[in-house]
Amino acid sequence: MTRQLNIKDAINEALHQEMAADERVIIFGEDIAGGAGRDEEHPEAADAWGGPFGVTKGLLPKFGRERVIDTAIAETGFIGASVGAAYAGLRPIAEIMYIDFIGTSFDQLLNQAAKMRYLYGGKCSIPMVVRTVAGAGFRAGAEHSQALYSLYTHVPGLKVVAPSTAYDAKGLLIEAIRDPDPVIFIEHKRLYMVESEVPEASYTIPFGVAKVVREGADVTIVGIQKMVHTALEAADGLAQEGISAEVIDPRTMSPLDLETIIASVRKTGHLVVVDESNPRCSLATDIAGLVASEAFEALRGPIGLVTAPHMPVPFSPPLEDAYIPSPEQVAAEVRRTLGAESDARTGTVRPGA
Predict the structure, then answer these.
(1) In which residue ranges of the chain is pLDDT below 70?
(2) Mind giving me the DSSP string for 209-275?
(3) What distance, in Å, lies between the first and last C-alpha atoms of the chain?
(4) CA 58 to CA 54: how far, in whole Å?
(5) Pairing, β 68-70 against β 129-134
(6) Is 75 a catalytic residue?
């Protein structure tokens, strides 16, 4: 049976189901097991906030303090504890409130979690999940609004997941919890209330399988997480102009399903990548480079990139809105790439070229 759930509730349901199914699953985080509320079993601090966005709410009364563990404001410590717990046979889920705090725990992830299977010749695994929140548009300022998934994607040994729908969020999180390797599970704060049909039963979605969310013939648009929705909105507008856009959601950054993207580019001949992160060394440039390397002969025009500017996220609401890639920018970039092909065929020199 399916019903409408938002992403926040789909993640909460996945956590409930996996903790009920496997007693090895434990959760570390700030404000997940202390604070407001009371009940008979935990009168001192019943259900807490459930983290900054209430995603883990309801876990403490059901699973208790031995498995839902409030931490100090010290990501270095509890990410390190998660690595040790995973090595010892548990399946920890650690919540970093915002992806912007990556620096406080990066050594534990870069040099420990990501490398231990390799360093021990495959004789151990680190089955841990780091849940964290990314994305601009929440008026949270430059230190709580970044899209830093490319930093994690750069590290071999880490799997990186960024769902854009409630259905994908539940299935990918369950897959992450069951995976034998460390997984960075990135949630976009502006997508938490977006709803879709989600089965009540437990299910998984395999990593490394992109989703074609809209079929098209003229141009391939790859959107990263929230930018999937931006790409779909742009595709709706382009359709009114007679331009048929195919939209792809990679769903996982590492492993990346390059085959699906290239197959689409071979069909359409054009590629535009939409990425909320900063442009230098980003997923947009990575995907563009991979497609240019593997399928250059299929391209009939330049690859288009739509990203945030190379600057911190502004706090000013009008500036923050301008910072985030828009459907209008995506549509303009599609027209540019298609126009470049037309100019090449006709020999036309465009004004300002």
Answers:
(1) 35-48, 340-353
(2) --EEEE--SSEEEEE-THHHHHHHHHHHHHHTTT--EEEEE--EEES--HHHHHHHHHHHS-EEEEE
(3) 57
(4) 9
(5) unpaired
(6) yes
pLDDT at 65: 87
Among candidate residues 75, 175, 187, 320, the one labeled active-site is 75
Q: Which of 42, 144, 229, 270 is catalytic?
A: 144
pLDDT at 353: 33
**Which residues on adjacent β-strands are paired with residue 198?**
3
Question: Coil, strand or helix: which one is 95?
Answer: strand
- Let me know the angle formed at the C-alpha of 317 by 312 and 320, rounded to the nearest 5 degrees: 35
Length, in residues, of the chain: 353
The answer to whether the beta carbons of residues 133 and 147 sit under 8 Å apart is no
Three-state secondary-structure class, residue 199:
strand
Model pLDDT, residue 349: 36
The whole-model pTM stands at: 0.93
Maximum CA extent, the chain: 78
Look at residue 351 in the predicted model and tell me its pLDDT.
Answer: 35
Whole-angstrom distance, CA of residue 37 vs CA of residue 155? 40
Q: How deeply is 103 buried, as exposed, middle or buried, from its count of CB atoms within 10 A (0-12, 13-18, 19+)?
A: exposed
248: CB partners within 8 A, 6+ apart: 210, 211, 212, 213, 220, 221, 222, 223, 260, 261, 264
Angle between helices 327-346 and 226-239 (to 10 degrees): 50
Residue with tokens 């994305």: 135
- Rounded to 10°, the helix 166-178/7-21 angle is 30
Mark whether 215 is an active-site residue.
no
Report the pLDDT value the prediction gives residue 51, as an integer from 0 to 100: 85
**Side chain identity, residue 146:** Q
Structure tokens given for 230: 């931006």
Residue 198's alpha-carbon distances to 21, 96, 340, in angstroms, are 19, 25, 42
Q: What is residue 321's predicted lDDT score, i.e. its pLDDT?
A: 96
What pLDDT does residue 347 have?
46
